[in-house]
Structure formats: C-alpha cells, structure tokens
Amino acid sequence: MAMTKVEAAKLTNDLLMRGVIDTIVRESELLTRLPFTDVTGTAITYNRESTMPPVAFVDVGDTWTEATPTFTPVTTALRILGGDADVDDFLQQTYANPNDLEAEVVGSRAKAVAHAYSEAFYHGTSLAGSKAFDGLARLVAPGQVVSAGASGGDLTLDLMDELIDRVRPGKPDAILLSKRSRRKLSALRRSSGNLLETDTDAFGRRALFYDGIPLLVDDFIRDDEVVGTSAPETSSLFAVRFGPEGVAGLEHGGIQVEEVGALESKNATRWRIKWYCGLAVYSDLGLARLVGVTP
User: Fold this and answer.
1) InterPro entries from the entry (predicted)?
2) CA 26 to chain CA centroid, nearest Å
3) Is 3.30.2400.10 the CATH number for 2-52+70-134+247-284?
4) Angle formed by the axes of helices 15-27 and 98-123, nearest 10°
C-alpha cells in the first residue's frame, strides 16, 4: 500500500516521530505528494510498463488481434539514509523546556534527511562509489525526454504542452521545476494574457497550477546542468504520475527515530534518525523530462 508522509504522520501516536515526519514534509514540497510503498526485504523486483497494448476499431465479423503491454523486469535496492543528533546534557537539564530543545535538535537533523532524499530523488545515482539510489534523471526512459535544443533553449508553452503530453494516459499529477523555471513560466503565461492558477495545498499554503496541474517548486532541481555545448546553466522540468502508474518512493519501516543513549566521549545523549528508502518508476509512461531550459 502506497502512502504519503502526510498521511503517515496522522497514524502515529509517537509525538516525537510525528514531529519529525511533519518537519520533513514541510521542508519538502515533493514529500507532501510522493506516495511510499513499504518493501519487505532489502530490495524490490517489479515489472515496469514500457508500452501500452495497441487497440483498433473493428467491423462486424473482423478477426480480433490480441495485444499485451510491454514490461521490463526491474530490481531496486533500498538504501540507508540518516544521521545522528546529539543533545547536550547540560543544556537539556538547564533549558526552560527540555522537550523543546530535544525537538529542535532532532528536527534540524530531520530537515537534513529531507534535503538528502530530495537531492537523490532528482540526481541520485547507484553507480560504483555512490551509496544513493537512482534519481529521476537516470530513471526516465529515453523516449520520454523532451529537448529544448541540442545545446539548450528557451522555455516555451509549446514545450510545456509536449512535456505534459508525454505522460499518459491522462495528465501528470504534478510538474516539478526549479524557482527559475517557475518565474519563466509565469512570465510566459502573463505575456499570453493568462495567469497561472492558484489554490492552497495540504498545509494551507498558496500553490500554483498550470493547466490544472500542480507546480511543485523544488530547490534541488539544478539550474547548472550541461546540455551539448551549453554552459552549466540549463535546467530540467519533470512531469510525473504518482503511485503504481508512475513514480513512488520505497521504504521499509518508515522514518525511524531511536534514542542511542548517553555517550561515553562527551556529555550528551544521541538520537538517530534513519530511513531505509529508495525510488521506483513503475511505468515509463508515468514520467517525462524536459531538458536544456536556459535562463
């Protein structure tokens, strides 16, 4: 069963754990939407849908042709993400509200976890020497990539529509983009006589939409990619379906917070935040990427 971190926070009675999950999702626009599938074991093997079966109109008496979708077996291993947070015993004992100090220290580490997952979500690699999982830039199928130009080019509304059309059936659940790309898209809509639609998200914050599709702005989408002979100044936009028809996070046991205990080497108590996590693309058609967008 796939569940977002927002829903997971509602189901836990551990106030410290709930605070950590809440901190992580508030720190990441992505994690408010991304569903997670619980994995048993150290890896998951699934069939990734590559093509949909063709269909056709037929007359009475025609022979019907059987067709099946094309699948590619994929195995994705879980990775270990986390870190330790030390709470100084002197400050803990003398602080006006010890729970506030503890929550502040652990919450700071939780933000770092959110940042690390978001970075890997887009640009992670499982190549030798890396301990992360493959991100969207490596998982997107070649046929699902839209190019702004051999060496980059301007963002246009036509390119936006082409990016959206690569995700099928239906529309993407979200478009992921950098702040720079968001500013450019807003300028394009204004110049065409239309503004981006606005609404509120799960936390009551103002959110933007393009053609009814939520725009999730993420600082971890880089504006310094190189395409062809371009300078390191291009960016990518991603159109995604969330869940079993597209992109989903993987985890085992969810985000875990445990008290390691008192340290021998210093006057402090250690807390550990750990997350056995990964990323899966269940369908090639549920993810598309626009590359080479220049400033």
Assistant:
1) GP7-like
2) 14
3) yes
4) 40
